[in-house]
Design goal:
Layout (H helix, E strand, L loop, with lengths): L8 H10 L19 H5 L22 H5 L6 E7 L4 H10 L6 H9 L8 E4 L4 H7 L3 H13 L2 E2 L4 E3 L11 H7 L4 E3 L7 E9 L3 H12 L4 E9 L6
Parallel strand pairs: 1-7, 2-3, 2-6, 6-7
Antiparallel strand pairs: 4-5
Helix pairs in contact: 5-7
């Protein structure tokens, strides 16, 4: 069970001064609400999904039909919701508008879904060019927030991105995998049997597929994926 985090007096003062209204609907927050009101949180797009690949399903299942025919390499995917409003806007604010402080409340919501936390969290790396453009790695910020909740460790340098690849946004699943071939390497070779890869959005799973392959090749037995949002693309 996720432990309750006790906010320090500095955190309480920070929230009272800067986050007195819900960042989504702008209504005043109560004393126990943080960042978003309870009404907006209930409107987060969180339909049931396949616990293996993350695809939205009619009811929560351990394996969907797609997984039974072509199972992902990892064992379990935990997600907060679908990549649509309001989560879509929050991820955009975190990723493209420098609002890195959103990583903490988003991680707190995601942590509620995670039943068996991994002892080691590995954020998806950015190429140094993109890191310089953005100023931070959103997946690393999420990993740090989750590690605080679960008392896990974070290794932000276990993976290294070797190539500066074009944006994946307009590519199909097949094109994404080709785009990411030999784009990563694993620098940390001594790893526990259970680790989790942290990514802000999983679309086709091409990125986490490549990283999971590296982990399995070096002896990791159980790989989980922690992501804020999942979105689906055509199967081509």
């Amino acid at each position: 069970m996720m432990p309750n985090k006790v906010l320090s007096w500095r955190d309480n003062l920070y929230h009272q001064l800067l986050f007195r209204h819900c960042s989504l609907c702008q209504l005043p927050l109560t004393q126990i609400e943080r960042y978003w009101c309870s009404h907006c949180i209930t409107n987060f797009p969180t339909p049931p999904y396949c616990q293996h690949c993350g695809t939205t399903t009619l009811s929560t299942v351990a394996h969907c039909g797609r997984c039974l025919s072509t199972p992902p390499l990892w064992q379990r995917l935990y997600r907060l919701g679908e990549y649509r409003p309001p989560l879509q806007q929050l991820v955009h604010q975190l990723k493209f508008y420098g609002k890195f402080w959103l990583a903490q409340p988003l991680a707190q919501q995601l942590a509620r879904q995670i039943t068996q936390p991994a002892p080691l969290l590995l954020p998806v790396p950015l190429h140094w060019r993109r890191y310089c453009q953005r100023g931070f790695n959103q997946s690393h910020q999420l990993a740090l927030a989750l590690a605080t909740i679960f008392n896990s460790r974070v290794n932000h340098s276990a993976f290294q991105r070797l190539r500066h690849t074009p944006s994946q946004q307009q590519l199909t699943k097949t094109q994404r995998r080709r785009n990411l071939q030999q784009a990563f390497t694993l620098r940390q070779r001594v790893l526990p049997n259970h680790v989790a890869i942290i990514d802000d959005v999983v679309t086709t799973g091409a990125t986490v597929h490549q990283l999971t392959q590296l982990l399995i090749h070096h002896g990791v037995k159980h790989v989980d994926i922690y992501t804020l949002c999942h979105t689906e693309q055509p199967l081509n």
